[in-house]
Protein 1
Amino acid sequence: MDYAINMVLYQRDVCPRGQFVTVSHYGMPLFVSRDYTTLNRLQNVLDYIQQVLPLLIPDIKVYLTLKDRATGRAIERWQFLIQNEDLAGPDWKDHKPVTTSRKNPARIQEEIRQTMKQITASISCLPVPPPNGIDWTMAVDVPEWVPIPPGWYRQPLDPIDNPQQLGLRPFSTGLHQMQTVVTYREEAARESSHPPFFWPPPPPHFACPLVRVIIIIPSKLSWFSSDPSSSS
């Protein structure tokens, strides 16, 4: 997910391209930010995900929302859905957690590589970024009983006008499956009569009767510091 978010920030011109360096991973070149503020914001989210993954949570959603800097309105949202493959079905509470994947590591890396290629290719299907620049926020969707870090708060996601969706091919680690879906604002000149499409069709949702909440991560919060402004 770290590389996927970095690729979106780079490809959508959210952050200056001079802040990124090229690294080789999964057998392909990837762009990674070297800006401290960006790295800190991403690491806060990734550390939190690592903490809650061992819990009995059928799925976790991570959102990257892009906003028009001039208007403050959401124009694009990337959703990364992490599903626990061992907790599928209505009787998931009776399962013992599985901590070791039996899936071939080479196959996992190939599936991740294909997902990264799709993220790059999907950019050509999205509207041109606004000329005044883009701001970005991140949010995590977890059940209400899951604790959240100090300074994070619960709030609904900003709506996107005239939303269209594009789903990417999911990949699986043998423990978790990640499905990426991008929702974007369709401009009037580009409006189409066809419904949103997914390729391939997204997997069915796991049964989860739990109450869920959206956790918004403040853009200037440093999880590792008591001073909220220290990361800016």
Protein 2
Amino acid sequence: MKCDGRGSRSFLETIRSITPIPPDTLLVSFDVKDLYTSIPHTNGIQSTRWLLSINNISPDLVDLCCDLLSIALNNNFFLFEDTYYLQVRGSAMVSNVAPPYANAYMAHFEDTSIYTHALFQNHVLTWKRYIDDVFCIWRGDLDSLQDFFLFLKTSWPGLDFTMTHDPYQISFLDTLVIKDTNGNLSTDLYSKPTDRNSLLHYDSFHPKNMKRSIPKSQLHRVTKIVSDPVIKEQRTSEMKSKFRERGYPPRILDTASTNDTTRVRDSAMSRIPFVHQYHPAAYRLHKTIRQHWHILQTAFPTVKEFQHPFLPCFKRPRNIKDSLVRADIGPIHPGPTQRFLSNPRTESSVLIPRTLPPVTLFDYLHSELPLSPLERTSILFFFCGAHKSPPPAVI
């Protein structure tokens, strides 16, 4: 019933394990509006502390994790036009901490408020959540469902739900769940009415392996999700037509159709990744490395990573979009621009409280602020590891 991070795979396993459901049931989906940017910092940190504590993590490690989380949440600055802002609620959308942080908040909400609620215990047959999306099978009338929906919308700070319900079919993630007249559930691919054929074009400047793997993964997705054999054949034909429209040759589609996607993949955990920007000539470089890889295997027989082939990994090079689209659109008023948080351009253009200490890494670690050694270490860890690149304020 509880959250599962595996997404649609776990959801399909749950649906196919359900026996025929009673005729008076409703298929329901709930969605939390703007979850990542709506969680109050204090409540979110409390939920994270609760989740870590119930998993038998040492109190010292729980305190350290919560301190680091507090630093990440309370120092989330961003630039718009010529002004820096401090986000005072929720987490940054691009932050690595955002999904587990939101998941912890929702898990705390479920455990303390939902699972013990009388309406949940009396009417919910299945409850499956993936971060901010919930699938529910509700046994009861529409009035009781509306009462439960009102409870969800008003019970916890920062959570505002939307609800969709139907007696016969409902969409969840990329799956359409269908109930027949006998109460049996089946699944089909779901796509929004506004969806267009946005598959990667075959002439695009991307690695050949990627172009071969996309048809395999998408056709496997059809096989995995669609439960009815007749509809599965139809969806497979439709998917191939989409690839043909994007220039994929028939031989790649035929190979993808016959590919055995159920095989167990070799673990990549013990392989050394070789990461570099993509270039068409990179395959010749990979070939050269493979030809001489035995030198490392012979010279270092005890290093287990050298006993496996290396793992080529491509990074996306700079493209036209990177040159045309910028997050910093520049100042809107002539005159000096603001480049440091501690030196605002004008008093009225900065929304950051004046009581905040300097926010450069140098100021944090070397000033006379009342920081303990643990706090200074935590700040150093945050600035070095919590961002893919330092924010402008750290320059």
Protein 3
Amino acid sequence: MDNASVRVKPATLSFGKWNVGFWLVAIGAASWGIEPLFRVLLLHSLTSAQIVLLEHVIIGAVVLPILIKNRAELRTLKWKQLGALIFISWGGSAIATILFTKGLAMGGNLNALVLLQKLQPLFAIILARLLLKEILPKNFFPLFLVALVGTYFLTFGFSLPIGHWSEFIQMGSLFSLGAAALWGGSTVMGRLLVGNLKYETVTALRFVMAIPLLLMITIREGAAWNWPTASSELFLVLLNLFGQALLPGLLGLLIYYKGLTTTKASVATLAELSFPMVSVLMNWFIMNEVITWAQAFGFVLIWLALFFISKKGQAKAPQLSVTNK
């Protein structure tokens, strides 16, 4: 019977003072910012739940050989790892999105909901300290504050996002906070898992385990499947569906979890800020939305924070890997 053991070795994904793993996390998260390029056409024919379900089914079929090849790892799963897998596949992929969408649907101040969602890194840092006992790099919190300010400018510019603090106290705000906690927690749980499983296995399980929940959500939604009747339109829909599933979906998450093997969860959550930055750039290039000076300033602040954080202490971070014997 195959046994799997976890060993810790010095990080190999570093070059001088640079932590390549940190930038792999940033690249993986940045790829999620191109999703609107594929999603715009798909939303004309399918609902969000249907799109997400089909993406997971496509990716599940592609990653099935990985699970078969690494099946020995599955026998070593303990309740702790299984709970972490359920958290990232159900909580991070499905429930968090539902909570945030429900918060938006309830009305109220949209900017307040978005601002509360930006607290995601804070949840990740707290959970990483409590669950993984991570020690933060020197000058982390000043750089963390710079990144948060940059994210604020990127989202709201130089204006105040709300008219009164009471706008934070509403049911939609609680949903937004819940989504932020689940997304931040998914980063920490992912870091926990890549210390016990290969990053390819974690990626595969995240998609496959989410399928039953997404199937129930789609059935409960009860929406009709409005596939295009013209062959040319159907081809474009399928092309976009496979493109979204395999590029920002599968490839992006593979790169993300590969980087997470050598990057602390508390630091990785800041690398994920590349996601909103790429989203803004996509809106500029594709949707012709002009980037304001405030957004440009926020963009620079985020990249400066990521630049200095990536150089502080992460080259010495241990790499957690799994070997079979």
Protein 4
Amino acid sequence: MSIDLQKHREAIVAAWKTVVDRKSATNWALFGYEGQSNVLKVQDTGEDGICELAGELNSGKIQYAFLRVDNSETGIAKFVFINWQGEGGTDRTEGNVCEACARCDGSGARCSHNAARDQRGRCRGGPYPREAAEGRGERVLK
């Protein structure tokens, strides 16, 4: 099944562009599904960064987040795309996020990795198991 981006396309693109806009105070957007459907919608946006966003991630859902991290020292912004699969989320939408990035953004940007992790943090279907990520000094979200 593919993600339906058409129903709420304008709101999705507007939220994405607002996060990208350095003049905007909004620095994250959270996307999720409408009920049990494959229709993607904007769930929330915010101005208080990763801590505020983390509080909105739901352990019972599959969600996608787009976050701008501003570096005040360099003046450079970094952008992070999060594919969140809570413990209670279903496997029905696993693997759809890359298609969503490619179809929604329009910038030609693609996701570099999309894999679900099991309860021990090991990848299912992806090249980076938890142990490898930790060995490279990367932070693994639990």
